[in-house]
Each structure stands twice: as structure tokens, then as C-alpha cells.
Recover the amino acids of this structure.
């Protein structure tokens, strides 16, 4: 039996490197750190891997296959060096880009034109060879803007229940601000698989909001939710029970405990499903959130650091509260409660072809 090292499924999340200590990429410009300098979170690795002094060391005494997170088209920036007599096999994206097989740590940059999600980097490393990764970053190409900066054309506020129509949504100087709540502002266009990126600012302390996706059209906040709530102030990690399902049958098999200092799942969480790993955003400051939906697989990044790597193994259901929803749905902005005061800009998306 082959042994697999799944580094992206620890029950105790290691805290990712703070934004200021990581390799210099501009997270405000949409760059994602696929290696955060501390962990191999989000990767699947069959073989040997460890992080030493901010370097991801892949390979060793036996053949190792390492696969980074999967995304669509965009730019890749990476630095690595190879130790050993036999060169590893490496591909980027769908395989069109071929990085150097004799790299010595120089920075390389490539552009990927994937329309389908594919691993940004994949190495097959023969026994006796190692790959030392110091940087792997990706900036997705976003093909559509959901906010034109002037009007709310293409968006619709929820109506039908006065108790859920309290929020105001105003647009000025390219910034959309939501105040008061509850309320909901949804896109008229529906999306299933996509890469979504936006900038947000919470204009108060520990305010609550979220971005719903694959939301049922016309219904109130009924979709998967990427949580926005910056409170990671718990003195000790909180235990979040996460449902576990059999991948073949979809039957519930139990729960696993995931620890996080987030008080209410945290910014970047998939709310009620899995908490965020670490505090990467601050109230009063613009931050960048990235949400990727690929079939059952959902991932998020906050200021370039991956927060969630979750696969929805629940049985299929039209209602995402009750099971896995694969159908396209709206993307919506949550007005949570009377204290709501958040601003949004640079709302961009790139649909992905379903694999």
C-alpha cells in the first residue's frame, strides 16, 4: 500500500506566516502565495516533504509527487533549486509552460492560459533528488468586472420580506458601501465554477459580513458563504466540529475537530463548514479576498494567504444548506445586522470550465 502525506488536512492548523514576513509579492494586486513560507497547506504530496527555514523541501529517499493548489489562467512567479543527479519532471498549469529542470534559485515567471482549473505546479521527483522551493506565487487573470464603478447595473437587492430589506447599498467613486442590515445584494448573472477576487474594508471593529456564491436566485442569503469577520482574538484556539462524509456514498461518517482562534469562523472561512486558518486582515484597512469554486472543491485566500481548502462531499442537493450544490448561482454581498458598515471595490471574476 502506498503511503500518502496529505499536508493540507491537519486537524490543528499551523498559523501561516504573517504578510510582512513572506516573499515580496503585491497581494493588493491579486497575488496568491501558494507556498506561505511555513506550511504546505493546500498541496497534496505523496512522498517526502518538510519546511525548513522558510524553504519547502520536496523529495528524498523515494519518488515524490507534489501538487500545488489548482487554479485557472494567470501569472506564475517561482524560485526553486534542484539537488541531485537526476532531474525531476515538472509542469505548470495544463503543461504548456516548462520551467527550468536545472534551476539554481533564480526567479522565473510564466503566464498560464488555462480555461480549466489545473495544478499551478506539479513535480515528480525521483529518489535521491530534492527540490527546494523558496517562492511560488500566482496572480489569476480575471476576465469580468462585476462592478462598473458608477452604477449597480447587474445587481439586485433582495425584496419580499421587509425585515430583510434593511441594508443600504451605495456606490461612490468606484466603492460600494453596505450599511445597516439585514439585507442582500446579488448578481443577476449566475456562476458555478470561478475565480473571484475583491477588495473589502470593514469600517468598524469586528463587523460581520460575507460573500455568498452559488446562491439560489431570488432567495435570501442561501448559498455557500465566504465569511468576513476579523475577530481572531480568542486566547486559546476554538474547536470547530467539521462534518466528514464518505467520498463514494456521501454518507456522514462522523466529525473531525479543527482548531482556530477565529471567534466566528473568521475572514476567509466557509461559514458553518470550516473555519479560517489565521488572521490576515485588519479592520479599517483594505484587504484582498479570493474565492475559488471548482465543482465540490472550495478554496479561499485572504491577503494572499490560503485560509480554506475544503471539499464538499455531502450528497447533491439544490439547497447548499442541505448538501452539495453544483448548479450555478448568484454572488451576493451580505448586510448582516444594524452595525454593518463595509466597503467593497475591484469586484472581478473569471469563470472556469468545469473539469
Amino acid at each position: 500500500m502506498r503511503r500518502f502525506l496529505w499536508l493540507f488536512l491537519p486537524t490543528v492548523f499551523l498559523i501561516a506566516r504573517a504578510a510582512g514576513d513572506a516573499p515580496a509579492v503585491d497581494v493588493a494586486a491579486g497575488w496568491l502565495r501558494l507556498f506561505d513560507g511555513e506550511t504546505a497547506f493546500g498541496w497534496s504530496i505523496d512522498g517526502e516533504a518538510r519546511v525548513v527555514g522558510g524553504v519547502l523541501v520536496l523529495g528524498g529517499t523515494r519518488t515524490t509527487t507534489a501538487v500545488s493548489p489548482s487554479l485557472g489562467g494567470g501569472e506564475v512567479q517561482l524560485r526553486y533549486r534542484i539537488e541531485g543527479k537526476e532531474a525531476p519532471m515538472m509542469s505548470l498549469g495544463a503543461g504548456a509552460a516548462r520551467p527550468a529542470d536545472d534551476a539554481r534559485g533564480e526567479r522565473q515567471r510564466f503566464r498560464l492560459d488555462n480555461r480549466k482549473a489545473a495544478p499551478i505546479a506539479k513535480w515528480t521527483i525521483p529518489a535521491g533528488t530534492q527540490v527546494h522551493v523558496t517562492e511560488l506565487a500566482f496572480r489569476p487573470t480575471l476576465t469580468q468586472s462585476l462592478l462598473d464603478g458608477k452604477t449597480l447595473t447587474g445587481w439586485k437587492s433582495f425584496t419580499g420580506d421587509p425585515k430583510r430589506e434593511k441594508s443600504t447599498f451605495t456606490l461612490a467613486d468606484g466603492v460600494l458601501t453596505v450599511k445597516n442590515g439585514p439585507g442582500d445584494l446579488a448578481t443577476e448573472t449566475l456562476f458555478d465554477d470561478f475565480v473571484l477576487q475583491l477588495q473589502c474594508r470593514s469600517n468598524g471593529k469586528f463587523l460581520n459580513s460575507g460573500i455568498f456564491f452559488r446562491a439560489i436566485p431570488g432567495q435570501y442569503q442561501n448559498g455557500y458563504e465566504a465569511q468576513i469577520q476579523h475577530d481572531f482574538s480568542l486566547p486559546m484556539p476554538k474547536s470547530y466540529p467539521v462534518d466528514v462524509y464518505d467520498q463514494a456514498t456521501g454518507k456522514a461518517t462522523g466529525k473531525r475537530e479543527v482548531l482556530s482562534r477565529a471567534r466566528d469562523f473568521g475572514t476567509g472561512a466557509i461559514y458553518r463548514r470550516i473555519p479560517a486558518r489565521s488572521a490576515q486582515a485588519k479592520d479599517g484597512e483594505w484587504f484582498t479576498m479570493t474565492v475559488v469554486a471548482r465543482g465540490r472543491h472550495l478554496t479561499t485566500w485572504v491577503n494572499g494567504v490560503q485560509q480554506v481548502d475544503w471539499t464538499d462531499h455531502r450528497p447533491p442537493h439544490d439547497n447548499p444548506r442541505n448538501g452539495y450544490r453544483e448548479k450555478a448561482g448568484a454572488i451576493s454581498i451580505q448586510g448582516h445586522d444594524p452595525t454593518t458598515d463595509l466597503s467593497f471595490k475591484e469586484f472581478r471574476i473569471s469563470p472556469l470550465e468545469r473539469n
Q: What stands out?
A: Residues 2 and 306 are 28 Å apart (CA to CA). The chain has no helices and 27 strands. The longest strand covers residues 130-140. The mean pLDDT is 90.
